[in-house]
User: What shape does this take?
Amino acid sequence: AGFTAGQQRELAQRIIGQLGAGQKKLRVNPQIEREGWRLLGSLERLDAGQRAKLGDELLQRIRRDPRNTARLWTIGRLGARVPLYGPLNTVVPAAVAERWMEQLLALKELVPEGVAAVVQIGAMTGDAARDVAPGVRQRASERLVEAEVTEETQAPLQSIVPVDRAAATRVFGESLPQGLRVSGR
Assistant: This one.
């Protein structure tokens, strides 16, 4: 069952302190920073407010270093419309997701991890409370076409695409153990 929401909050507070998020920037070993942000992005039971604060902090850092793959991966997970295991009430509000998408789309260059983040944040769910505005999804699609991103990669922006084992592998970087599967919503 993984960590409870309380355990995830406690773990997040420790990592946030080590990263110096939201305060005077600390000098942190780059590997520790990358892994710390990835860990924070994988904590899907953090409440939506905490996830929004982390994402806002992260976007400031992404603007300074728009090719940082760990940060881009993390913003995609923090803003994902479809959590892999967390409850739906921890998904950041659609207005926050829209703001993040606009900022990512404004980057001069969209690296593959940036594309993945835009698609995760803008993925259609069929739930009006979670879905970003159609105009934002349309702008994302246009920008991704300019960047020569395949239609298959953009598909979640156009229609509801169920999360599958391959998606979990892409997100977590390894296949799930035999017998463990991502539950559909």
Notes: The mean pLDDT is 89. The longest helix spans residues 48-64. Residues 3 and 100 are 27 Å apart (CA to CA).
